[in-house]
Design brief:
The chain is mostly helical. Helix content is 28%, strand content 0%.
C-alpha cells in the first residue's frame, strides 16, 4: 500500500486561568464595592496586557472574585 503524503496546517487554542492581585480597600468599604472595583481593575489590567497580542488573545469571562478581609483592630 502506497500512502500519499498530505500537507496540513494546524492551529491551537489554549484556555488559561490568570490570577490578578488588585488594590486594597479601607474598613468603610462595603463588600459589593470591593467585588465591583476588583473586577473592573482586574479586567482593565488583563485587557491592557492582551492588547499587545495583536488580537490573538481576548478576555472572555471573570470566573471568580475572592475578597480577603483582615481584622486590623488592636487588642485592648
Amino acid at each position: 500500500m502506497n500512502l500519499q503524503k498530505v500537507r496540513t496546517t494546524t492551529t491551537a487554542r489554549v484556555t488559561a486561568t490568570v490570577e490578578v492581585t488588585t488594590g486594597s480597600w479601607g474598613p468603610g468599604c462595603q463588600l459589593d464595592q470591593v467585588y465591583r472595583q476588583a473586577a473592573e481593575e482586574a479586567e482593565g489590567t488583563i485587557r491592557r496586557l492582551l492588547s499587545e497580542s495583536g488580537g490573538k488573545a481576548r478576555l472572555i469571562n471573570v470566573e471568580r472574585i475572592v475578597a480577603i478581609t483582615t481584622d486590623t483592630s488592636t487588642p485592648k
